[in-house]
Amino acid sequence: MDLPIVDIAPFIDGDEAAKRRVGRAFGDAFETTGFAVVVGHGVPESLAAATYDAMKRYFEQSLETKLADKAPEKTKGRGYLPMGVESVAKTLNGETPTDLCEALVFNAPHRECRTAKPNIWPAEPPELSGLVKDWCGEILTLTDRLTRLSAIALDLPENHFDPVFEDPALTLRFVHYPDQPEPPAPGQLRYGAHHDYGGLTILRQDQAPGGLEVADKDGVWHEAGVLPGSFVINVGDLLARWTNDRWKSTLHRVSNPERTLTGSTARLSMVAFTAPNEQAEVACLPSCCGEGNPPRYGPVKAGEYIWSKIAASHDISTAA
Ligand SMILES: O=C(O)CCC(=O)C(=O)O
Ligand SMILES: [Fe+2]
C-alpha cells in the first residue's frame, strides 16, 4: 500500500492558504488509510541518528543488565520490557503468542515530577538519558504542530485542541526486534496485529527487513515501506472515537523477516504515543457529527480509556 506522503513544511512556515492545503492532505490521509508519511517535519536528522545509535547500544547489553531497568509493577508504562511479556494482539484476539521484541519506555521526562511513577533511567550508555530528553523535546514540538494541523484538517480553529494539549500525555517507546535465529512459533510476530490506543502515533522506522504492515479495509496486509527521514503517523482509537470514526484507527503489525535472508535483520523503532491530557473529556468533536450523523460513542476520560487498553495487552499470567 502506498501510504500518502504529506510535506508539512508549508504548514510550519507558510501562509493561511498553504496551511489549509497541508491540512486537507493530512485529513484525507486519515480519512482513507488512517496513516500518513510525514516529511518536512523539522526534527533534526542528527538527533534522530544519535538517539537511534544510543538505543542500539542499550539493547546490545546483556539481558541481566537490562533487567535492572525493569519496572517492579506489571505495566508497560516505563522501564525495560523484556521479550515474553507483551502480546499486543491480545487487545483483539485473546490468547496469542508473545511479541518478538523488547522495549525501553519513558513517560515524557518533563512531566516526571507530576506522575506517580518516575522514569527509570539506564546507566549505559551514558549519553542515552540526555538524548531521550532532547528527543522528547523535539517530539513535543512535532506533537504541537500535528495537533494544530489536525484541528485545521478537522475544520476546527487551529487552536481548538490547545486546552487539552497544553500538558499532553506522551509515551516514548523504543523497540528492538532482534534477529530471529530460531523460527517464530506459529502465529508469532515481531508485533502482533493491533490498533494504537490514543491520539496520533509518531513512528520513526529504520530500514531493516521485517517491518510495518497495514491492513486495508478487506483485511489484506500491505507493507508500509520506509521513506528515510520521514515519520509514519497514524490514528489511535481515542482519536477515531473523538472524530466519530471520520479518522480511521487502522489495524497494523510488524512482520517477521524472511527466513532466507542472511546477515542481521534486527530492527529498531522509535515510537511516540501522543494523547491529550489524561483528565481531558473526549466527546465527539463538533465538526464530526450533525444531522444524520449522530455521535456513535459516549464521552470518556482520555487517561482511563487508554489505560484500560494497555492493561488488556499484558500477558498477566506470565508477567513477573
Ligand atoms: O515498530 C513499528 O514499526 C511499529 C510499532 C507499533 O506499531 C507500536 O509500537 O504501536
Ligand atoms: Fe502500533
UniProtKB/TrEMBL annotation:
EC number: 1.13.12.19, 1.14.20.7
Segments forming domain Fe2OG dioxygenase: 168-276
Broad class of enzyme this protein falls into: oxidoreductase
Presence of keyword Metal-binding: yes
One Pfam family cited in the UniProt record for this chain: 2OG-FeII_Oxy
Keywords: Ethylene biosynthesis, Iron, Metal-binding, Oxidoreductase
SUPFAM superfamilies: Clavaminate synthase-like (SSF51197)
InterPro entries cross-referenced by the UniProt entry: DIOX_N, IPNS-like_FE2OG_OXY, IPNS-like_sf, Iron_ascorbate_oxido_reductase, Oxoglu/Fe-dep_dioxygenase_dom
Swiss-Prot/TrEMBL cofactor(s): Fe(2+)
Reaction equations catalysed: 2-oxoglutarate + O2 + 2 H(+) = ethene + 3 CO2 + H2O; L-arginine + 2-oxoglutarate + O2 = guanidine + L-glutamate 5-semialdehyde + succinate + CO2
Keyword Metal-binding on entry: yes
Coiled coil spans: none
Pathway, per record: Alkene biosynthesis; ethylene biosynthesis via 2-oxoglutarate
Protein family membership: Belongs to the iron/ascorbate-dependent oxidoreductase family.
Protein name: 2-oxoglutarate-dependent ethylene/succinate-forming enzyme
